[in-house]
Amino acid sequence: MTLPRTPSFRLTGKRALVTGASSGIGEGCAVALAEAGAEVWLAARGLDKLHALQAEMAAEGWVTHVLAMDVADVATTDSQIAEHGPFDILVNSAGLARHSPAVDTTLEDYNQVTDLNVRGAYFLTRAVARGLLAAQKPGSLINISSQMAHVGGIDRGVYCATKHAVEGFTKSMAIEWGSARIRVNTICPTFIRTPLAEQTLAIPERRKWIEEKIKLGRVGEVTDIMGGVIYLASDASALVTGSSLLIDGGWTAD
Fold first, then answer.
1. pLDDT of 143-188, one tens digit each?
2. Is position 4 within any domain?
3. In a domain, 119, yes or no
């Protein structure tokens, strides 16, 4: 009898692009991928934070590069991906939230959030896939979505709309590129303790609502996401595409 062996979680020899890498979930994903052996391209709008992160990662012996990137600028992003790709792995963690009651939503807030969360994410995923298709390489493309892609939320009409949209195009792209062995998935976190989430966690009634909804009884940490991104990026998830990995402490279980 020949025993089966667990597929490798290692990413040695892989090139990964992480957007929104300057803080929070993006930073955690970049570190996780580098720990697993990937060469990681750190992308965000602000270079100062990226260079500081690169220096810390270099001290660990990890290979990284820094790239100033505004995902909402589709034309420039396309050029950058064409110049520096192909990338075996994409983690798109660039995102924006403008929370308000739906009756108070401004056109400016709507446009800014959708331009980054939907339009930018869509065309970034397409750009990385184009590079893989041209090189005839497989790949794993991961969009950081949200538990709010599966439920509604207080004052989150626009944000929920964008994340539902990400789930939709992720499934369609997974179908389209499956035969080329390009996998497309999302990670859907609950509230994770990041600068983006602090604006909500600082409001006592919102904090109470969050803690009641998370069945495990605590707000998430960046480290809670890191294992999931390695799983989806690696051969351990070779048959997973068009799926959502919910890391939500049970929020969406009911």
1. 999 999 999 988 899 999 999 999 999 999 999 999 999 999 999 9
2. no
3. yes
- Give the count of beta carbons closer than 10 Å to the beta carbon of residue 181: 14
Residue 107 lies in a domain: yes
Instruction: Report the DSSP pairing between strands 182-189 and 244-247.
Output: parallel
Q: What CATH number has the domain bearing residue 174? A: 3.40.50.720
Distance of CA 119 to the CA centre of its chain: 15
As beta bridge partners, residue 89 has 16, 140
Number of domains in the chain: 1
pTM for the predicted model, two decimal places: 0.95
Query: How is residue 66 written in tokens?
Result: 């820094």
Q: Token digits for 118?
A: 């939907």
Phi, psi (5° rounding) for residue 190? -80, -165
Residue 6 — left, alpha, or beta (φ > 0 → left; ψ -120 to 50 → alpha)?
beta
Diameter of the chain measured on Cα atoms: 65
Q: Which residues are catalytic?
A: 159
